[in-house]
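Just curious: can you write a single protein's sequence together with how it folds?
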Amino acid sequence: MAEDPASEIQLLRSQKAKLIEILSADADFVLQHADSRSLLSPSGYQLVKACLVPSEKVRDLLDHVIQRGPEAAQGLLELLKDQTLQETFPLLCFMKDLQVTTVPSDVEKKNSRKRKSAPASPEIVTSTSAGSQLVEERQLMTVARAIGRSWRDIGRSALKISTVKLEQIEEDHSTHVERVFAMLRCWRNRQRYNATAAHLHSLLSQEDWALPPESIDFLLEVD
């Protein structure tokens, strides 16, 4: 670990936008795990919990941890590498390769002036071909709005999600769109690196439960 006391905070800040996008899939899940590790103050926990918008809840959680200092920031970094979080949010896999030492110490700064060679960014390069990217939250929500009352049949037959899991989703969420979105998110988490937009499009285009092309063809578009 670098000796710079603010390096953990700088690392969190550098990945903040990416973490908000990923963790918004289940903001409450992250909040409960962060609270179980005492990463938030009691008042901070209540403030973050009261936020109803997932992306804003994750943003406030990150801000609160950052404000608490390097120790809390280090605790959150360790949480994000934990197996439970990694399995729930497959897109967090890049966190395993990130080290606090990516923020240069004084010695490293001197060396970098001499070298100035390879970039230090640990960003993952993804393909830009049509549908080859991992499906995003906004895409799942758009698809969720296009799926009607047959969502359970689609879940069982197309997405291979068990009836027990579908019943749990139905019990945990009150509105139709929330239930379908949770089902799609469950599929994505289980598929991990195979959860591409093209793969989801293919599954939802099968004859027996095919959705109208105009409602899912956007999955094949390149941003």
